[in-house]
Write a structure and sequence with these properties.
The chain is an alpha+beta fold and about 190 residues long. About 15% of the residues lie in helices and about 50% in strands. The protein contains two helices and 13 strands; from the N terminus they run αβββββαββββββββ. Strands 1, 2, 3, 4, 5, 6, 7, 8, 9, 10, 11, 12 and 13 form a 13-stranded antiparallel β-sheet that branches. The longest helix is centred in the first third of the chain and has 19 residues, at about 1-20. Residues about 1-20 have low confidence and may be disordered.
Protein backbone atom coordinates (compact mmCIF):
# COMPACT_ATOMS: atom_id res chain seq x y z
CA UNK A 1 0.00 0.00 0.00
CA UNK A 2 2.84 2.35 0.89
CA UNK A 3 4.47 1.66 -2.50
CA UNK A 4 1.23 2.58 -4.31
CA UNK A 5 0.98 5.85 -2.34
CA UNK A 6 4.56 6.77 -3.22
CA UNK A 7 3.96 5.94 -6.88
CA UNK A 8 0.80 8.08 -7.00
CA UNK A 9 2.62 11.02 -5.37
CA UNK A 10 5.46 10.78 -7.87
CA UNK A 11 3.00 10.56 -10.76
CA UNK A 12 0.98 13.57 -9.55
CA UNK A 13 3.96 15.83 -8.88
CA UNK A 14 5.75 14.88 -12.11
CA UNK A 15 2.59 15.70 -14.09
CA UNK A 16 2.26 19.02 -12.28
CA UNK A 17 5.91 20.02 -12.82
CA UNK A 18 5.85 19.04 -16.50
CA UNK A 19 2.63 20.92 -17.19
CA UNK A 20 3.86 23.94 -15.27
CA UNK A 21 6.70 24.54 -17.74
CA UNK A 22 4.58 24.28 -20.84
CA UNK A 23 3.20 26.25 -23.74
CA UNK A 24 -0.42 25.81 -24.81
CA UNK A 25 -2.22 26.84 -27.99
CA UNK A 26 -5.89 27.38 -28.63
CA UNK A 27 -7.95 27.71 -31.79
CA UNK A 28 -11.00 29.79 -32.72
CA UNK A 29 -13.26 26.76 -33.19
CA UNK A 30 -12.64 25.74 -29.55
CA UNK A 31 -13.88 28.92 -27.98
CA UNK A 32 -16.11 31.93 -28.26
CA UNK A 33 -16.04 35.70 -27.87
CA UNK A 34 -19.14 37.46 -26.57
CA UNK A 35 -19.99 41.08 -25.92
CA UNK A 36 -22.87 42.63 -24.00
CA UNK A 37 -24.06 46.23 -24.23
CA UNK A 38 -27.17 48.25 -23.41
CA UNK A 39 -29.05 50.63 -25.65
CA UNK A 40 -30.54 53.93 -24.53
CA UNK A 41 -33.20 55.18 -24.05
CA UNK A 42 -35.01 51.87 -24.54
CA UNK A 43 -32.55 49.88 -22.40
CA UNK A 44 -32.43 47.16 -25.03
CA UNK A 45 -29.81 44.48 -24.55
CA UNK A 46 -27.31 43.93 -27.32
CA UNK A 47 -25.54 40.58 -27.33
CA UNK A 48 -23.03 39.60 -29.96
CA UNK A 49 -20.63 36.76 -30.42
CA UNK A 50 -17.98 35.33 -32.65
CA UNK A 51 -15.42 32.55 -32.84
CA UNK A 52 -12.97 32.13 -30.01
CA UNK A 53 -9.49 33.55 -29.89
CA UNK A 54 -6.33 32.06 -31.32
CA UNK A 55 -3.04 32.27 -29.50
CA UNK A 56 -0.67 30.78 -26.99
CA UNK A 57 -0.21 30.76 -23.24
CA UNK A 58 3.01 29.86 -21.49
CA UNK A 59 2.90 28.48 -17.95
CA UNK A 60 6.29 28.79 -16.31
CA UNK A 61 7.35 29.20 -12.68
CA UNK A 62 3.70 29.56 -11.57
CA UNK A 63 3.14 32.49 -13.97
CA UNK A 64 0.95 32.66 -17.06
CA UNK A 65 1.92 34.81 -20.03
CA UNK A 66 -0.02 34.83 -23.24
CA UNK A 67 -1.72 36.51 -26.11
CA UNK A 68 -5.29 36.01 -27.35
CA UNK A 69 -6.14 37.32 -30.84
CA UNK A 70 -9.76 37.87 -31.84
CA UNK A 71 -11.02 38.13 -35.42
CA UNK A 72 -13.41 41.09 -35.25
CA UNK A 73 -14.72 40.48 -38.80
CA UNK A 74 -16.59 37.41 -37.51
CA UNK A 75 -18.57 39.18 -34.76
CA UNK A 76 -22.34 39.07 -35.13
CA UNK A 77 -25.39 40.26 -33.20
CA UNK A 78 -27.78 38.27 -35.37
CA UNK A 79 -29.19 41.39 -37.09
CA UNK A 80 -27.50 41.94 -40.44
CA UNK A 81 -27.94 45.74 -40.68
CA UNK A 82 -26.66 46.19 -37.09
CA UNK A 83 -23.71 43.91 -37.87
CA UNK A 84 -22.85 45.85 -41.02
CA UNK A 85 -22.84 49.15 -39.10
CA UNK A 86 -20.89 47.66 -36.20
CA UNK A 87 -18.20 46.13 -38.39
CA UNK A 88 -17.82 48.82 -41.05
CA UNK A 89 -18.72 52.13 -39.39
CA UNK A 90 -17.68 51.62 -35.76
CA UNK A 91 -15.05 48.86 -35.51
CA UNK A 92 -13.71 49.67 -39.00
CA UNK A 93 -12.58 46.08 -39.54
CA UNK A 94 -11.11 46.84 -42.97
CA UNK A 95 -8.44 48.87 -41.12
CA UNK A 96 -8.49 47.12 -37.72
CA UNK A 97 -9.48 43.46 -38.35
CA UNK A 98 -8.24 42.02 -35.03
CA UNK A 99 -8.13 42.73 -31.32
CA UNK A 100 -5.35 41.32 -29.14
CA UNK A 101 -5.39 40.79 -25.37
CA UNK A 102 -1.99 40.25 -23.76
CA UNK A 103 -1.69 38.97 -20.22
CA UNK A 104 1.65 38.87 -18.41
CA UNK A 105 2.82 37.47 -15.08
CA UNK A 106 -0.54 36.17 -13.93
CA UNK A 107 0.00 34.10 -10.77
CA UNK A 108 -1.31 30.56 -11.23
CA UNK A 109 -0.37 27.69 -8.92
CA UNK A 110 -2.08 24.92 -10.88
CA UNK A 111 -5.04 24.35 -8.58
CA UNK A 112 -8.32 24.05 -10.43
CA UNK A 113 -10.68 25.73 -10.76
CA UNK A 114 -9.30 29.17 -9.99
CA UNK A 115 -10.78 32.62 -10.43
CA UNK A 116 -8.07 35.26 -10.65
CA UNK A 117 -7.95 39.00 -11.20
CA UNK A 118 -5.77 40.14 -14.09
CA UNK A 119 -4.39 43.24 -15.73
CA UNK A 120 -3.65 43.04 -19.41
CA UNK A 121 -3.13 45.15 -22.49
CA UNK A 122 -5.88 45.26 -25.08
CA UNK A 123 -5.07 46.37 -28.62
CA UNK A 124 -8.32 47.42 -30.29
CA UNK A 125 -9.10 49.87 -33.09
CA UNK A 126 -5.47 51.01 -33.25
CA UNK A 127 -5.31 51.82 -29.52
CA UNK A 128 -3.37 49.94 -26.81
CA UNK A 129 -4.89 50.29 -23.36
CA UNK A 130 -4.66 48.47 -20.05
CA UNK A 131 -7.76 46.55 -19.02
CA UNK A 132 -8.61 44.77 -15.78
CA UNK A 133 -10.86 41.81 -15.29
CA UNK A 134 -11.02 38.30 -13.98
CA UNK A 135 -10.20 34.94 -15.48
CA UNK A 136 -11.52 31.48 -14.63
CA UNK A 137 -8.96 28.75 -15.22
CA UNK A 138 -9.73 25.05 -15.23
CA UNK A 139 -7.45 22.06 -15.55
CA UNK A 140 -6.03 19.26 -13.47
CA UNK A 141 -2.28 19.80 -13.43
CA UNK A 142 -2.51 21.29 -16.93
CA UNK A 143 -4.51 24.06 -18.57
CA UNK A 144 -7.84 22.92 -20.05
CA UNK A 145 -9.93 26.08 -20.39
CA UNK A 146 -9.76 29.81 -19.76
CA UNK A 147 -12.63 32.30 -19.54
CA UNK A 148 -11.62 35.97 -19.30
CA UNK A 149 -14.11 38.77 -18.60
CA UNK A 150 -13.48 42.50 -18.65
CA UNK A 151 -15.23 45.77 -19.41
CA UNK A 152 -14.20 48.47 -21.83
CA UNK A 153 -15.31 51.98 -22.73
CA UNK A 154 -15.73 52.49 -26.47
CA UNK A 155 -14.41 56.07 -26.35
CA UNK A 156 -11.12 54.92 -24.77
CA UNK A 157 -10.45 52.98 -27.97
CA UNK A 158 -11.52 55.85 -30.24
CA UNK A 159 -14.66 53.99 -31.29
CA UNK A 160 -17.63 56.25 -32.00
CA UNK A 161 -20.69 55.55 -29.87
CA UNK A 162 -23.15 53.63 -32.11
CA UNK A 163 -26.50 55.30 -32.67
CA UNK A 164 -29.36 54.40 -35.01
CA UNK A 165 -32.97 55.60 -35.18
CA UNK A 166 -32.90 57.27 -31.77
CA UNK A 167 -31.23 54.38 -29.93
CA UNK A 168 -27.69 54.95 -28.70
CA UNK A 169 -25.48 52.16 -27.41
CA UNK A 170 -24.05 52.73 -23.93
CA UNK A 171 -20.33 53.39 -23.86
CA UNK A 172 -19.57 50.48 -21.50
CA UNK A 173 -19.30 47.04 -23.07
CA UNK A 174 -18.71 43.75 -21.24
CA UNK A 175 -16.43 41.27 -23.04
CA UNK A 176 -16.15 37.54 -22.37
CA UNK A 177 -13.45 35.48 -24.10
CA UNK A 178 -13.51 31.69 -23.81
CA UNK A 179 -10.71 29.35 -24.92
CA UNK A 180 -11.15 25.64 -24.34
CA UNK A 181 -9.50 22.41 -25.39
CA UNK A 182 -6.08 24.00 -24.96
CA UNK A 183 -3.40 21.92 -26.60
CA UNK A 184 -0.05 21.47 -24.87
CA UNK A 185 2.72 21.94 -27.43
CA UNK A 186 5.87 22.01 -25.28
CA UNK A 187 7.00 20.67 -21.93
Amino acid sequence: MKLISIFLCILFFSKFSIAQNSTYTFQAQNGQVEFFAKGRPALISIHGKGPGPVGTIEWKEQKLNGSLEIDLKELSTGISLRDEHMLQKYLEVSTHPNAVLKIENLDFNGASPQKLSFKGKLSLHGVDKEVEGHVDIKGDGALDSIVAEFNLKLSEFQIAIPSFKGITVAEDVKIQVTASQLKQITQ
